[in-house]
Amino acid sequence: MEKQLRMxxxxxxxxxxxxxxxxxxxxxxxYERVKKKLPRISLATxxxxxxxxxxxxxxxxxxxxxxxxxxxxxxxQHDHIYCVHCHxxxxxxxxxxxxxxxxxxxxxxxxxxGCRIEFFGLCPGCRKIQQKTRKGEEKMGxxxxxxxxxxxxxxxxxxxxxxxxACGSKDIAAATSLEPKQVSCQITALKKKGYVASPAxxxxxxxxxxxxxxx
Amino acid sequence: MEKQLRMxxxxxxxxxxxxxxxxxxxxxxxYERVKKKLPRISLATxxxxxxxxxxxxxxxxxxxxxxxxxxxxxxxQHDHIYCVHCHxxxxxxxxxxxxxxxxxxxxxxxxxxGCRIEFFGLCPGCRKIQQKTRKGEEKMGxxxxxxxxxxxxxxxxxxxxxxxxACGSKDIAAATSLEPKQVSCQITALKKKGYVASPAxxxxxxxxxxxxxxx
DNA sequence: CTTCTTGCAAATCATTTGCAGGCTT
DNA sequence: AAGCCTGCAAATGATTTGCAAGAAG
Lengths: 215, 215
Fold this sequence. Notes:
The structure is a homodimer of 215-residue chains.
Chain A: H1 9-20, H2 27-37, H3 43-55, E1 60-62, E2 70-72, E3 79-83, E4 89-92, E5 111-122, H4 124-134, H5 151-162, H6 169-175, H7 180-192, E6 196-200, E7 203-206, H8 208-214
Chain A binds a DNA duplex (25 and 25 nucleotides) through helix 3.
């Protein structure tokens, strides 16, 4: 039933190269390294062996952000930090903190077998690059996510703040530089954020949160 | 500079269908739902709009386990639980617990912008299935991962325990039912676990951890 | 001579892109 | 007309698979 694994030369080299990497390489990063020792090896062999070795428990296949899977020689339970710019992955040690656990009543009926924790942000290298390119530009930060406001959203919201009663998108368009059609997308975003309410079909008014967001 | 978004019919339907889902659908799950309302829509349009809407901050693209990306109408910060069997994703509320933070000195030079927490395990549906298929079978549990021992590993380790001095894989093979080549793979696994040491090339001996693991 | 592996090529899966035509200002 | 959007088909990137041949027991 259980399949007999052979420690072939290819397998040994893949394993030892992975052991030397502290970078959680993707399959083809590892392939490039292994190819230097075994020029005739094929990418498929690398994929196949990474799969087999991780199933045998000799290495670990990581579920991390990004499109490619990554592999880790270190079997111990540990966490990662991911660079959203260059996709590099480093280890993170949460020494002091105790790991989260999930009591059964909060687990939605799941049988929980573990927890992945992944921080993300910009790695040291990418921070430097960003600092250069941002020089002189306005500070980034997402204008549409979370509680922030884009310029157009702010314009719409300000127009609404001036209305006594709920008004339609045409009224808003008239009070701003925007077309009615263009307004509707902004309204949708503002409604999601809770800054705008719709007391009646096609009628909109600013909420108290909306007023707070303007100031 | 900033592109003008229009709230087209397709876009509205995609958004509203996503709002009705509490299942964090993949692009093509959503495509299947949307197609019922707009039979002529194409998968590319769904992908394009999910990308655009998430960039505009109206929805959220999730980085979760599994090969396909998933999308979430709920913009609030929250965590997920992932079924390793059917790939379903549910929300998890970590109410009591305060979220982890990462002090700069532990962040490996990264500029940290956030943290993803993902529990994983078996969802209620898959638990039932597993219980059925496991009935009568031996308890699962990974034999090669972590600190556990497979039958072959145990056999090798027991053979080593009986040796006074370090011995080669041929000696081990002779003392067990295994061939020398087959032994080498088990040795590699045992070395990784710290149960076996190699005081000289091709010579192996059991460690104190190895002895502990046998009992 | 059976079992496990390999390299190569072709297939697959999720996602993205080019393009010609469409709809709205 | 200008700008954004669509459907379709073809391209892409990551990974997997079929297969004939090779190596090992």
